[in-house]
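Deviation from plan, reported transparently: KE4 complex.
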Amino acid sequence: MSLSQKLFDKAKEIIPGGVNSPVRAFKSVGGTPPFIREAEGATITDVEGNSYTDYVGSWGPMIAGHSHPHVVKAIKSVVEKGTSFGAPTHAEIYLAQKISEIVPSMEMVRLVNSGTEATMSALRLARAATKRDIILKFEGCYHGHADSLLVKAGSGAATFGVPDSPGITAKTAEDTLNCPYNDLEAVENLFSQKGSEIAAIIVEPIAGNIGCVLPKDGFLEGLRKICDNYGSILIFDEVMTGFRVARGGAQSYYNIKPDLTTLGKIIGGGLPVGAYGGRRDLMEQISPSGPVYQAGTLSGNPLATAAGLAMMKIISAPNFYEDLDKKTQRLTVGISAVLSRVGIPHLGTRVGSMFGLFFTDLSVVENFDHASKSNINQFNRWFHGMLNEGVYLAPSQYESGFLSSAHNEEIIDETIAAASKVANTLK
Ligand code: KE4
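Because the crystal trials were delayed, the predicted structure below was used instead.
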């Protein structure tokens, strides 16, 4: 029995499923998750010293690679001065200013501790500002595990095929409507019936929790117009796409201005940070400047803001995104070529350094229904084949992959060579 297996058995005795976040348990792909000891750059190493090229990057935060020296240095520079004060600090101002400078639609910013807190708070604000109860999300999109958002969610929830979680009241679920992603007509029909009751649309501008599904031309613009017509709030959940697909996130990539944006992952460089922000007239309604309550003991703590400021500096380097784009293109084109060479039906998707791979005959995957028709068994064989070749991919068909600035051409070509070996076993 491997050390990871021993640790997994021990973990299951004291932690539900042996993990602190479900998708880590490898339930959908099967097998035992390697317990990780350390990580640096593009490499993670498990407790037995096996190293893997990492394309999960802690589910997005590690866009500059693991243990980036500037992030480590920033944390070290503050950690001995205290880890949390529960009081305002200057670094919180700087980080909020930096976020607003890079994402101008975020005229004001509130730091929280996770993406879930960010989306939960943004929805509360949207409901308060519009005095409406209903929210619209999209099937398969995942916005964290707040009750009202765990309805036909993606990511881990979709992976387990139980998109609705027990413990959510019928009333809560009632106030959450879903449409198929990319189906603007369905949204228009819904709004023509209930538009005056809908507080907000919350959308992943690129759906990264269905696998990686791109918005169809006109979809995001259409949501913007509908929200304008009906006085609803447009929330871009950029927890995954923010600072990922472009410096200014998907909203800059597609040139759409949401009313509120939620962030997470990259802004903390791996430390627990989330944020929400947007129009000043909305954000000023957040306590204590306004009546909408939201709070957090560790929000904006000095370690998180130091790491976040270091990340903002790293991603602001010239050509940072252009280089990532080129390298991810090399990777995804290379993998697709080796799968095509052996005749494996698949569809690769990508925006910047965020990418997906569906084992499907479909020529397009536009929504959760399309994605759920993928050959999950084939995906699972691909996943384990690549893991055995030292390549660590997201352990679910309903997740996206991420490349970092630490992945160089040599590493990418090694991954493609591994893919070529594994592709032959999939025939
Ligand atoms: P967190 O609460 O996990 O920080 O963020 C929730 C969240 C919100 N919005 C989007 C678009 C997200 O992708 C996420 C979290 N992403 C998942 C990966 N699909 C995190 C991995 C996990 O759940 O362990």
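The first helix runs from residue 3 to 14. We consider this an acceptable substitute for the interim report.
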